[in-house]
Design goal:
alpha/beta, pyruvate-formate lyase- activating enzyme, 9-stranded mixed β-sheet, 3-stranded antiparallel β-sheet, 14 helices, binds S-adenosylmethionine, binds iron/sulfur cluster
Length: about 375
C-alpha cells in the first residue's frame, strides 16, 4: 500500500453563514479560533507519522477569514509536514478576505493554489445566498493573487438556484471564463436539511432545467478549452486538482480539524462536529473499518466520478480480482451504463448526469 501523501485541514469559521450551507462551520470569533488552532496542532502532532506529503488542502468553513496572527499560527502547524518537490498546497478563500497581507502570508508559507468560493456573479442570487461581492471585486482579487505569483486558481460556482434560468447561468459562465482561471468547480444547488433554504421550504429547480443547465456547462467548458475530468470539475490541461484526485483515486489521506474525515490504514474516520469535544481532544467521532468488499465499492464509486473512469488493470492488481467477470459490471456494460475504453471502464459521457443511479448499483459489488 502506498504511503499517505495527502492532508486535509478543516477551518470551520465563517464571517457569515450562507443560506444553503450544511458544512461543518460556525461564526468566526477570534477567541475560539486560538483555542481551535491549539487543538488542531495537537491533533496533527499526534497523528502525522512523517510521510512525504504531495498535497495539502486547507478548506472550510472559510480559512481565509482568520486574522493575520491566526493565519501565522495555522502555517506553524502546516510547517510540520515534509513536502515533496512537486507539492500542491491549496487554501479556500472568500472573495472579501483576499488582501495583500494575507496573500503575502500564503505565499511565504508555500500556498500555490487558491480556491475561491464565488458561487455566482448575480447580485440577486448572491443576496439570497447571503453572500456579497461583485464581478469587479472577484476580477481585482484574482489579479492581486496573480501579482503574488499564484496562477493556479479555482473558482466554485453553484447553479440551479431556485428561480434562476438558463440565461442567468450563461451570464455567470461568460463572467467566469473572462477571469482566465485554471480550474472551475460547478455544483448544482442541494437544499440540505438544517440550512436556511430548507427551513424556509425553498423548492428545488425542476430536474429538466437542472439537466439542461448541466449540459450547457459541459458545452461551454469545452468551447473555452476546459477539460471535464470529474462530474463537477473542469480545468485547463494539466491543472486537475491533485488533492481531489486523491479522493477519487481512493487513496489514503489525513483529515484534521472539526468534522474533517480521513482514510488511514483501511479505516475511514470522521471527526466530531462538537467544538467542545474537539477542544478537549476527543477528535474522532466515527470509524468505519473497511472490508475488501467495502474497499472495492469505494474504489468503484469514487473512481467512476472521474470522466476517464477506472483503470481495469490497476483495479485487478490492487484487489487480486477480475473486474470484468463480475456479474453487476457485466450487466451494467450490457445495459450501456458502463463502457470500456482502452484499459479503462467508465460511465458513458451522455449518462454522467444520471450517474447516481448507476453508482447505486455498484454498492452491491463484491
Ligand atoms: C467545502 S464548500 C466551502 C467553500 C467555502 N467555504 C466557500 O463558501 O467559499 C465548497 C463548495 O461547495 C459548494 N457547495 C456548498 N454547499 C452547497 C450546496 N448546498 N449545494 C451545492 N453546492 C454547495 C460551494 O460551491 C462551495 O464553494
Ligand atoms: S458555504 Fe462556505 S462560507 Fe458559506 S457558510 Fe458554508 S462554509 Fe461558510
Amino acid at each position: 500500500m502506498k504511503s499517505i501523501e495527502s492532508v486535509y485541514i478543516h477551518i470551520p469559521f465563517c464571517s457569515s453563514i450562507c443560506t444553503y450551507c450544511d458544512f461543518s462551520k460556525m461564526l468566526y470569533y477570534e477567541k475560539f479560533a486560538s483555542s481551535y488552532l491549539e487543538a488542531l496542532f495537537d491533533e496533527v502532532k499526534g497523528k502525522y507519522k512523517g510521510e512525504e506529503i504531495k498535497t495539502i488542502y486547507i478548506g472550510g468553513g472559510t480559512p481565509s477569514v482568520l486574522n493575520l496572527k491566526d493565519l501565522k499560527k495555522l502555517f506553524e502547524i502546516t510547517k510540520i509536514f515534509k513536502l515533496k518537490k512537486d507539492y500542491e498546497f491549496t487554501i479556500e478563500c472568500n472573495v472579501n478576505d483576499i488582501n495583500e497581507e494575507k496573500l503575502e502570508i500564503f505565499k511565504n508559507n508555500g500556498i500555490n493554489r487558491i480556491s475561491i468560493g464565488v458561487q455566482s456573479f448575480n447580485s440577486e442570487i448572491l443576496k439570497k445566498m447571503n453572500r456579497f461581492h461583485t464581478y469587479e471585486e472577484v476580477k481585482q482579487k484574482i489579479e492581486l493573487i496573480n501579482k503574488f505569483g499564484i496562477e493556479n486558481i479555482n473558482v466554485d460556482l453553484i447553479y440551479a438556484f431556485p428561480n434562476t434560468s438558463i440565461f442567468d447561468l450563461k451570464k455567470d459562465l461568460e463572467k467566469v471564463f473572462s477571469l482566465k482561471i485554471k480550474h472551475i468547480s460547478t455544483y448544482s444547488l442541494m437544499i440540505e436539511p438544517h440550512t436556511m433554504l430548507y427551513i424556509k421550504k425553498t423548492k428545488s429547480i425542476s430536474e429538466d432545467i437542472d439537466s439542461e443547465m448541466y449540459e450547457l456547462i459541459k458545452k461551454e467548458m469545452k468551447k473555452h478549452g476546459f477539460i471535464h475530468y470529474e462530474v463537477s470539475n473542469f480545468c485547463i490541461p494539466n491543472y486537475q486538482s491533485k488533492h481531489n484526485l486523491t479522493y477519487w483515486n481512493n487513496l489514503e489521506y489525513y483529515g484534521f480539524g472539526l468534522g474533517a474525515s480521513g482514510y488511514i490504514k483501511n479505516v475511514r474516520y470522521t471527526n466530531t462536529l462538537s467544538l467542545d469535544k474537539y477542544l478537549s481532544h476527543k477528535y474522532v467521532s466515527e470509524e468505519e473499518v473497511l472490508s475488501k468488499k467495502d474497499q472495492m465499492v469505494y474504489e468503484l464509486i469514487l473512481g467512476m466520478r472521474k470522466i476517464d473512469g477506472i483503470n481495469i488493470k490497476d483495479f485487478n492488481k490492487k484487489f487480486q480480482t477480475n473486474l470484468l467477470e463480475n456479474k453487476i459490471i457485466q450487466r451494467l456494460i450490457k445495459n450501456d451504463c458502463l463502457v470500456i475504453d482502452d484499459n479503462y471502464i467508465k460511465i458513458p459521457y451522455n449518462k454522467i448526469y444520471t450517474e447516481n443511479d448507476i453508482l447505486k448499483e455498484l454498492l452491491d459489488y463484491e
